[in-house]
Amino acid sequence: MQPLKAMAESSSAICESPQRKTKRFPRLCSKLSYIPLGSFPTPVHSLKELEKTLGVQNLYIKRDDLSSPFYGGNKVRKLEFYLAQALEHEHSRVLTLGAAGSNHIAAVGYYCARLGLQSSAICFPQPPSPYVQKNLLFNLRNQVTLSPITSQYLLPFALARIFGKAPLTPEKPYFIPMGGTSFLGIFSYVLAAFELIDQIESGEIPCPKRVYCALGSAGTATGLLLGFHLAGYPEIEVRPVSVVPKPFCGPQYVAFYANQCNRFLRKLDSSVPYISLKSREIHTIENQVGSGYGFFTSAGTEAQKAIQETEGILLEGTYTAKALAGLLATEKIDPAPGPVLFWNTINSVNLQMHLEGMDWRQLPKPLQFYFQ
């Protein structure tokens, strides 16, 4: 607990950490608060054994599942900015949103606990699965106050009750949007795109023609797309694989968020070039959703099994298994003219050691359903 608390007190800008320095638009680094939580850059490597098994050529992976030895995944990059801002504005509690077994809620709860912050989450139902159980118990371990609602459509009403029309003050919780998707979360993946470009330019991997990732709240895919354009690599095509049904996400959201974030970054640093992306230029893959968010698919299960057996890499059925299934299905019928990269966004740290002694009966009654 103490090392992160000490970092929280001494860190004020992303440029103060060598892990977060970037040669691209360095003035941006002095404008946003930052606290180091992860281990970056995350590794990149080929997937030779998976290639042999599935017949896909030139396949590589970006291991954001290894972004932290404590709790990894794509949320770590985003929380480095959000939690720094929460501390900077002297909030004692953080509030976020998500499904009952949300990895985002679990990550927020864990890092808040390590930083001495309290955390709360409004959560809506999703299909039961073992990983949902694990995340709920992990939240119990980290003393996350969970407030279940019966439908995600009730989220605006729940937030209105908490915030009302009064201005945001330290007494009110610091709010992190669902999935960590806002300008801060998107910017964290602009930096992630810069990180990958550095690895390409240093010769760690060849430049991919396509990058595949899961598309939920759209922050990760948007940041990567914008980052590649800002870095001068618009030829790298981002192909987000949707894990939520229409109309909750799609190319129009990615284009809108990317253009809005671009304007935000240009206000911080006028040297950032103007980018205008059109939804028709963004190729989302929308045939892997299955029965809906959180429902596993046979294609996802097969992809998950294949990469675990050949490469020893863990995925989960809600996001990353569907993303890899989308990659494999697309590359079989429309192969890229060059290398392809899969961006693994899940946490691969085993949480079992944190769950000893946790009693699901201590959860709010609506959430006990997942254990019955």
Percent range of helical residues: 25-40%
* Derived structural class: alpha/beta
Strand content: 5-15%
Number of strands: 9
Shape, per Cα inertia axes = globular
Described by strand count, sense and barrel closure, the largest sheet is: 5 strands, mixed
* Low-confidence regions: 1-19
First-to-last CA distance: 34 Å
Rounded radius of gyration (Å): 20 Å
Number of helices: 12
Q: Residue-averaged pLDDT, rounded?
A: 91
Helix-strand pattern: HEHEHEHEHEHEHEHEHHHEH
In short:
The protein is of the alpha/beta class and 372 residues long. It has helices at residues 2-10, 48-54, 75-88, 103-115, 130-141, 155-163, 183-201, 219-230, 251-268, 298-311, 320-333, 365-368, and strands at residues 44-46, 59-63, 93-99, 118-124, 145-148, 174-175, 210-215, 237-242, 340-344.
